[in-house]
Each structure stands twice: as C-alpha cells, then as structure tokens.
Specification:
CATH architecture of one domain: 2-Layer Sandwich
Low-confidence stretches: none
Number of strands: 8
CATH superfamily of one domain: archaeoglobus fulgidus dsm 4304 superfamily
Strand content: 25-35%
CATH class of one domain: Alpha Beta
Bound molecules: magnesium ion
Strand order of the largest sheet: 3-2-1-4-5-8-7-6
Number of helices: 6
Mean pLDDT: 93
Length: 230
DNA sequence: GCGACAG
DNA sequence: ATCTTGTCGC
C-alpha cells in the first residue's frame, strides 16, 4: 500500500473520504497490544476562529516516573471541515506531523476521539495508528455510535459499547462521580489492554494523563486578550 | 424526511 | 473545537 501517496490528500469529497476509510480499514492489524507501557503518549488538536490552520500536540508521559518525557507541536492548514464520522481527515494530518516530531517512540498512543467505535470502524485512533504504525487507543469524551448499559459509579467500572450487534468499545469510569470516557481499539491493541492502559493513566482524573496533558499543552499556548480573573 | 452526530 | 467568568456541586 502506498501510504505516502494516501497521506497527501489535498482536498477530498465526503464520499471519497468514506471510500478511503473502507479501504484503509482493511489494513488494520490487531494484537494484544504493547508488552510494556512505560511510555504512553497523548495527542490533541485545536483550532481558532477565523484561522485556516489547526495546531496539534503530542506528549509522551512516563508511567513509571509520572513525568512528561517529551512534547512536540505542529501547525498546518486544515483542508476538511469537521463532519461526524470524517473527523480524522481533519485532525489526523496535523496530529501525525506533531507525532513525527518526537524523538522518543512511545509504547502506545492515546487519541482524543474514537477508534473502532465508529460507523465504519475507522475512527481517528485507527487512522493515526495505521500511519504511525504504533499501537493506539481511542479515548473519547462522548459517544459517536453505539449504546451501553449502566455502569457502576466506582472507578474502574466498565460497560461494553455495542453498535450493530458488535462490541466496538467500552464506557470506562476513570473517576468516581464523573461521566465515563469511551475507549475503543485504534490499532495493534486489544480492547482489554486498551482499558487497562486508560485506567493505569487515569490517576484520579477523568481523562488519562497523556491525553489531558496534550490538551493542556495546547491551551497553555493560547494568548489571552485579558488576563484570567483571579 | 427526521434526528443523531468524536472534535 | 471555539467565543468566555463566575459559579455550583461532588
Ligand atoms: Mg480534542
């Protein structure tokens, strides 16, 4: 497969994007996931009103030292609008650029969006994992497709997400009294291992540390018109 | 046709 | 996601 070629989409129609997802889906590979998860990365993207570009961050977090090992940023022109189900074509290019700027290689990557819990089983986490050739986990803050039953209020509680008769992920309670996060396989990982890693990285917060830090890294760059009230 | 709908 | 301060609740 000509991965470089597929990566240079200047602009594509929604129907072309859907077709491409169906082809790329066939390239997904699954295994149990990384044996070690000493280095877990998180990525996120942001946009600003009236700006034609988007920015992305990639943060590597040490699960042993509980510290940030490395951060990388990228800025790039956005070619696609946000369309539910086609989100990765908007955000993956700038995210991939940020991840390619890292000097370390993480054991697994957490993405702010879904993996298999997607109408065509090819969400952002699948897309980014495939092109980085690294294990990835989709960790979204709300559902795109599927339903799940009630889950206990205890930290660590889970409930399968079912879509069209398939288990495509799990709702995971990472913090007591908070809404769950929605975990699904991105690339080269099992659902069980994905849930384990998300819980390992949660540490009392709703969003797992690498994802949360990647988000904060972008906010931290924002310039405020007025100093924050305090 | 209507409602749902990651970020 | 963004535009944005304070405020309410576990
Ligand atoms: Mg995001």
């Amino acid at each position: 497969m000509k991965i470089r070629e597929l990566h240079a989409w200047p602009r594509m129609s929604t129907s072309e994007a859907k077709q491409l997802q169906l082809r790329l889906r066939e390239l997904l590979v699954w295994d149990g996931g990384p044996a070690s998860c000493a280095l877990v990365a998180g990525g996120d993207g942001t946009y600003r009103v009236g700006q034609p570009t988007g920015r992305a961050s990639a943060v590597i977090w040490s699960t042993e030292e509980l510290t940030v090992v490395e951060r990388s940023f990228a800025e790039r022109e956005l070619t696609m609008p946000y369309i539910p189900g086609l989100f990765s074509f908007r955000e993956a290019p700038v995210l991939l650029e940020a991840f390619r700027g890292l000097r370390h290689t993480p054991d697994v990557v957490l993405l702010d969006g879904h993996g298999l819990a997607h109408p065509r089983r090819f969400g952002l986490a699948c897309h980014v994992g495939l092109f980085l050739d690294l294990p990835t986990i989709g960790c979204a803050k709300s559902l795109l497709v599927g339903k799940h039953g009630d889950l206990a209020s205890d930290e660590g509680a889970t409930a399968p997400i079912v879509h069209e008769g398939e288990v495509v992920g799990a709702a995971v309670r990472t913090r007591r009294g908070c809404r769950p996060v929605y975990v699904s396989q991105g690339y080269r990982i099992s659902l069980a291992r994905a849930i384990e890693i998300v819980l390992l990285c949660a540490r009392g917060r709703r969003l797992p540390e690498p994802a949360r830090l990647a988000h904060l890294a972008l906010q931290g760059e924002r310039t405020w018109s007025r100093p924050p009230a305090c």
